[in-house]
Design goal:
The chain is mainly β and about 450 residues long. Helices cover about 10% and strands about 30% of the residues. The strands form 7 sheets. Strands 1, 2, 4, 7, 9, 10 and 13 form a 7-stranded antiparallel sheet that branches. A 6-stranded mixed sheet has the order 15-14-18-19-26-22, with no helix packed on it. A 5-stranded antiparallel sheet has the order 23-24-21-27-28, with no helix packed on it. Strand 14 and strand 15 form a beta hairpin. About 30% of the residues are buried.
Amino acid sequence: MKPRKPCFISLFFFFFFVHCYIISLADAYDPLDPHGNITIKWDIIKWGDSDESMYDARVYIFNYQLFRHVESPPGWKLQWDWYGKEVIWSMQGAEAYEQGNCHKIKGNLPHCCKKTPQIIDLLPGAQYNMQTANCCKGGVLTTMNQDPTRNSAMFQMHVGNAPYINVTNFTYDSKTLDTVAPKKFSLGLPGYTCDDPVRVVPPTRFAEDGGRRFTEAFLTWNITCTYSQFLASPAPTCCVSLSAFYNATITSCPLCSCGCRGQAGVKCVKPGETHNEDPLLQLPHSKDQVVPPLVMCTNHMCPVRVHWHIKTNYKEYWRVKVTINNLDFANNYTQWNLVVQHPNLRNVTQAFSFNYKALDQYGFVNDTGMLWGLKYYNDMLLQLGPNGNVQSEILLHKDPEMFTLREGWGFPRKISFNGQQCVMPPPDDYPRLPNNTPSNAIARPYVSSIIFLLALILLL
């Protein structure tokens, strides 16, 4: 009897699928923002008076992410599937994109009769009687760091044809209650996946009269939505280039960082051509419609390029210049942000024209910081053109225990733009110090002038 040979093919496929599964789980987990998510809260605040098949719902959307925001367009577009034949009779703070087929309803028509409604935020300046708290921002949700007063949204609606439950005698374990909240939630945003609703016990409490009185919701559900960069965009959307005062070589973005010229489906505008001739940009677009990127033809083909330049080396400080270029002819970036990892960020002294906040994720280790624009000044990164860039300088204090300019230490380990990780150049391509230059050399613009004056004095 021959001994059985091990099934290497089966083992290969087993470990391959396990590896892919682990990657899929890790992709939705961001170590710089481990608890970041968008949470939807569904509160039933009142269940019918004369009609037990109607209730009032208050829906909240909270962005609990530190550096990933929702801008407009597209803005959030909340969707769900009703369990039964529910309809939305009226809404405040938002509206349904489509009314749907309401021909079976006699009398006044509901606001929306679709089985899968799509709810969109109202625009700023909506009628006062249609507004609610935290509404009317066009679907924008800022990050918790940039503007915590605008990282949430809320709307209210009157729902009919709800499943019957005995509101005077029910228990929280009743299976009927699980059919009250909708299912299959979606934010309508690339990269986000929402879990099933989870009933919260006890329900939400509401403070009234300045906290002197509290009321309670009838029922509450939470829906958690997490983000995956791979699901949002399989190809990167930004890259990083590097330079330093001590080296004339500029390390550009890696070749084909976000795509390759001539690749199928990749469009770009060559130098000297006008992007106004592109038929894609001549089509009428609504304010809520996403315009695909149309980038300038480059070797990296990225819509956004971040340049890190080591500008000056003083005795106790060193200075870095950061420039962000929008190479997209079609899109602006509002409320943009940049997250940088560098070991000396714990000693940031000043960011001159950007906001800066440290992201303390590892206790005493502080090597990650977030940069974003100043309001009404450079918080919008415009399309490619004379104003299609923003820049700032960062002054850092030298840490004598670690500071050096050798081996690429002065360059960041990782950079992300709007939560999307940028492609970094390989370490071997980083600008290097000249062989005869010490790592603690002081590069002040007036050093040569002082040496010249001293020599002149000695000669005299």
